[in-house]
User: Which sequence fits this backbone?
């Protein structure tokens, strides 16, 4: 099931499968396919879009105009949230681990966040570790003026993020229930489609992580 994107985002879904031709696999009748989640969206690639999409819907449905989230100095999640805010017209505040970074020149990741309109708030590492505690979170909200903001946890990881990622499994089933590729020469004498494809599991699958962002 593909989750409807918020107005302002135009993801490429389902993300495409790319066949990798490699004789080391082909001669054994194995197909190697890459699921190109890195092509979903230029600013929210891979799991960043999948983890944020339902959170963005929830924020809009509840009438929140600001997103409050958390990350380290090189957090790709902060970058994705800042980009989503820019695209959707939402204010964004990023709580950054490490108060020693305040006042220093920003690294490229945080520079991009600021360029996309995110306001950065640096906290010491002890406070950051306790950010999910109600009292600590309430204090951060007061300090940043985000009492009414929609909170997205570090990395975007919550129940809505898990639900958003279920679409990946659905897409894989759609790709593999009716195999889009012909049998490899070495496997043509075997039953087709192979049992692994008939059960919805590709004979060989590898996630495209090389071009995708890290989790945080």
Assistant:
């Amino acid at each position: 099931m593909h989750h409807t994107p918020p107005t302002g985002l135009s993801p490429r879904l389902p993300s495409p499968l790319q066949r990798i031709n490699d004789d080391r696999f082909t001669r054994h009748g194995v197909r190697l396919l890459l699921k190109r989640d890195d092509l979903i969206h230029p600013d929210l690639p891979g799991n960043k879009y999948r983890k944020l999409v339902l959170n963005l819907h929830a924020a809009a449905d509840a009438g929140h105009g600001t997103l409050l989230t958390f990350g380290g100095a090189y957090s790709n999640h902060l970058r994705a949230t800042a980009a989503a805010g820019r695209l959707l017209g939402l204010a964004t505040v990023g709580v950054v681990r490490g108060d020693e970074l305040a006042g220093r020149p920003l690294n490229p990741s945080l520079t991009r966040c600021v360029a996309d309109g995110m306001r950065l708030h640096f906290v010491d590492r002890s406070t950051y570790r306790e950010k999910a505690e109600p009292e600590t979170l309430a204090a951060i909200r007061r300090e940043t003026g985000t009492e009414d903001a929609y909170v997205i946890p570090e990395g975007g990881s919550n129940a809505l993020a898990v639900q958003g990622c279920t679409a990946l499994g659905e897409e894989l089933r759609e790709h593999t229930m009716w195999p889009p590729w012909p049998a490899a020469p070495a496997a043509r004498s075997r039953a087709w489609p192979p049992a692994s494809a008939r059960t919805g599991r590709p004979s060989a699958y590898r996630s495209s992580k090389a071009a995708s962002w890290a989790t945080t």
User: Anything to note?
Assistant: The radius of gyration is 21 Å. Confidence is low (pLDDT under 50) at residues 183-216. The beta strands are 17-20, 32-35, 66-71, 91-97, 118-123, 150-151, 205-207.
